[in-house]
Specification:
single chain, 234 residues, 4-stranded antiparallel sheet, 3-stranded antiparallel sheet, 24% helix
């Protein structure tokens, strides 16, 4: 979030939008005019400040109509997150969708995946609760451009029991992500009581030409056939 000293203010001679004047905004309460940023023939842009300290450039017409949006209001999205200020592009729009999905999984109890994230205590780090900072960090990850490749790649947590953060995330294909899920089944293969293999149940069934249900049935009933035995890893 920028500070007042990060902006270059012009002399404000307006008798209506004067420095210190307060204006009601429809959703975000009052904002106070801090100074004049730009002066154009048909409109002026002022710097306004909300009660939470957020500084927002706004046109005089939006200030008057109460349509200035506090993009740093952390109660705006799922009660915990905000969008911040960023340059809108096709790339940022796609990343914003990924970000909103992440926020919803962790904080929206009505989301289909909430039981696997928010209900388990998985959260989003404080910095990433603002999309502006999430965007800056994601751009530093290797292969971040792949997130724009349709639905083939996703943001994945390295430690599935830890929160979303720059240190705990990487970009993987959807296929890889599916293998990393907590609910995936890892199978151990024994031959004559000796461990000879271990892997995801999909890989094991393909490698040993056996059906998934057959594997699960042998595990359940402790069946040994032709020396082979399967166990589920805890």
């Amino acid at each position: 979030m920028k500070k007042i000293e990060d902006y270059t203010l012009l002399e404000n001679t307006s008798k209506i939008y004067y420095n210190g004047s307060q204006w009601d905004q429809k959703r975000y309460g009052k904002c106070t005019i801090v100074g004049l940023l730009e002066k154009h023939r048909n409109y002026h842009i002022f710097l306004v400040q909300f009660d939470n300290g957020a500084l927002i450039p706004a046109r005089h017409s939006n200030i008057k109509s109460g349509n200035v949006k506090n993009v740093y209001d952390y109660s705006y999205i799922c009660g915990v997150a905000c969008q911040g200020m960023y340059e809108v592009s096709d790339f940022s729009k796609i990343l914003c969708r990924h970000w909103r999905q992440m926020i919803n999984r962790c904080y929206n109890s009505n989301h289909i995946s909430y039981k696997n994230y928010g209900l388990r205590g998985i959260k989003v780090c404080d910095r990433w609760l603002c999309f502006e900072y999430f965007l800056k960090d994601i751009l530093t990850l290797e292969n971040c451009n792949l997130l724009c490749n349709g639905h083939e790649y996703q943001l994945d947590r390295i430690d599935n029991n830890a929160d979303y953060s720059l240190e705990n995330c990487h970009i993987v294909s959807c296929k890889e992500n599916a293998r990393n899920r907590r609910s995936n089944t890892i199978v151990k293969v024994y031959f004559n009581n000796e461990l000879i293999d271990k892997g995801h149940i999909t890989d094991i069934t393909k490698k040993y030409h056996i059906g998934r249900q057959t594997v699960m049935n042998r595990v359940k009933n402790n069946i040994v056939k032709k020396g082979y035995k399967f166990e589920i890893e805890d």
